[in-house]
Amino acid sequence: MGCGFGYGSARLAERAAKVTGIDVFEDALAYAHERYGAAAAFLRADGLRMPFASGGFDVVTCFEVVEHVPEPQRLLREIRRVLASDGVAVLSTPIRSPSGEISDPTHLREYDPAEFQEELVAAGFARVELLGQHLAPGIWQVHALSAQLSRRDVFGLRRLMPPRLKAAIFSLLFRVRFGAPVRAAATTSISSDLEGAAVQVALCRG
């Protein structure tokens, strides 16, 4: 759910027998079809009203979507509905800072771990395990450079570039600016330690 440009769905398809990615953004889905259509199926669908039978999926992934929707319980209950009784849902969302300040203006809410766990249990998940995703400093360098390029692109020229060319230019600029490849600088790790984590990852079972 929230497959975006499809690269995550393609990674899942390396292990899964079948993968279906859904999103509401047509441009992202068009790219996903073109680039990864041989690996996974892609469908325009709203996560609040998924066109799937109940219990039809062994695994549902939903990464950093719940903080954007106005009705999080509807979203979570819909995930629970389409999940098989012995399935697992893997969801992630940013951890709200101790100050309560929202990290992104597009987020409608952010949760501390206790609040996120309560939300998931209220949606019908009997067992919830929370893990912490820790971000290397290079993540923020990537974010800063991307924001800087967006601000300078006042005519929207980057939208006209093929994605591969855009990625290649960004990688080159990042290496020149920070002296390291993007993949080496922007690493993450996931562990049971939530202290200092930027994102919480929930493993949910019915």
Layout of secondary structure:
Layout: H1 7-13, E1 20-23, H2 26-36, E2 41-44, E3 57-63, H3 72-82, E4 83-94, H4 113-122, E5 127-135, H5 137-152, H6 163-178, H7 182-185, E6 188-191, E7 199-205
Parallel strand pairs: 1-2, 3-4
Antiparallel strand pairs: 4-7, 5-6, 5-7
Can you walk me through this structure?
The chain is an alpha/beta fold. The radius of gyration is 18 Å and the shape is globular. It has helices at residues 7-13, 26-36, 72-82, 113-122, 137-152, 163-178, 182-185, and strands at residues 20-23, 41-44, 57-63, 83-94, 127-135, 188-191, 199-205. The protein is 36% helix and 23% strand.
What would CATH call the class of the largest domain? Alpha Beta
CATH superfamily of the largest domain: Vaccinia Virus protein VP39
Derived structural class:
alpha/beta
The CATH architecture designation of the largest domain is 3-Layer(aba) Sandwich
Number of domains: 3
CATH topology of the largest domain, by name, is: Rossmann fold
Round the mean pLDDT to the nearest integer and report it.
Answer: 91
- Report the span from N to C terminus: 18 Å
Question: Could you give the order of the helices and strands?
Answer: HEHEEHEHEHHHEE
